[in-house]
Amino acid sequence: MKLAKKTTLRTTLLVIGILLLSAILMGCVGQQAEEGKVEEPQTLEVGIGSLGHADGLVDPAIGWSSWFSRRAGLYETLTKLDHNMELQPWLATAWEPVDENTWQFDIRQGVTFHDGTPLTAESVAFSLESLLQEDSPRFNPRAQPLLNIKEIKVVDEYTLRITTKEPFAPLIYHLSDPLFAIVSPNTEEGEIPAGTGPFKFVEQQAGEYVVVERFADYWDGAAKLEKVTFRLIPDAATRAMALEAGDIDVAVAITAVDALRLKETAGVKVATGEIHRTDFIKINCQQEPLNDARVRRAISYAIDREGIINAVLEGIAGTPAATIFPPTLPWANRDLKAVYDPDRARTLLEDAGLTDTDGDGFVEHNGEPFKVRFLAPTHRPEFGPVAEIIADSLPKIGIQVEIVTLELGAAKEMVKAGDFDLFMTSWGTAPSGDPAYIMEMLVSTTGDANYGKFSCQDLDELLLEGKTTLEPQARAAIYNEVQRIISEESPLIFLYHRVDMLGMSEAVQGLEVHPAEMYLLHKDVYLN
Whole-model pTM? Predict the structure, then answer.
């Protein structure tokens, strides 16, 4: 009996001891978890309309693919643009003119490419020269017009000099273009080259997704996110629905309709911001009577830009445009205003000899009703409704309109062949923050994108002067005059400047709309 009691007591004390020890240990674990628990690696799913070149990541030297590489946080350039579109150091810490044709750059020290290669002046020279040499697999025909380089010289391990063929003001700005991403020289031909960004490439499935992950040795401190997957979702409405369903964390470039709905959706937020993208119409200036500036201006006066913005962009996704540059850019001529004046339009047509002789409400040219073919590519969903509004407006001043809707590739072929009257398009107007390149492409007599064959000698001379003038105020005056001439001659009709919208989970922190559209993922994005 005593033995049984003793055994029971001993067992009881043992149980109590175990319970006390468990409580102490659980308290320690709980305290440990509160003081420094290890969190799950943060990952992000992003829905985006394109993955760059043929819907997959490639060397940023290829075609126009570099914009996605930049947005994915993989590559960096010597200079960059902040949210105020002001130039900032990046892989170059400083630069200064040596003479009117030469700039010297201090290359950032302590930077490592994703493959372990150190960044030096030599590797910067390799990246730039490989884009300029026609026998290089990285050659891109856009590079030399953007840089105008005569010579690149390595001064020492971290000093580089670039000499242009003549004084060339846009150089420092154009070096921020993602085409000029600095890549590792130790890359096999055909491989995706290593960059210096906060994220490195992991894998992809063409036409489906690209995966990047944190680069632990990033020179400016490791990113907060462990991994990011960019999923190809071409349709903006589908991206918005995927965000609502929780399938993705971020929906890039959503429509105004979806933005209004998502703002009322629990757990979702919308970031908005003015971007330097302008939707406008190119005019075939070789076609009669569109070769008369009065006719082109009449078409511009007949378009109600505010009405388009309210009807198609829900009143929130655009602002009226009088010139290619939005007023947030320092190069914009703010004296120019978008004017809606059908009466003035009718007067201009009459001055140009276009009158309604048979009383049917339409003006005639050479005895035939004046009718324009309006090409509206289908790759942007708003182009169709915008074209329809314009097609309803022009008959009010006596011009008939035929809308032609085609996929973008077919429409571009027609435009390049000069087989169009009006063509709806959308351009990012300041990817590098400088006005020279886009102006020259669109309206110089020899411009690569001057498919309407507009030509004005005064404008050509100003564009040349704008590139070779180094003093900022003098350049601003030149480009103000360039924009005034374009407004007067109207080879392009500017409709509206874009406001971009980014849908995301409320947990996502640090993502913003950048006005240049070329920046998105960075090291300080995280999930709260």
Answer: 0.86
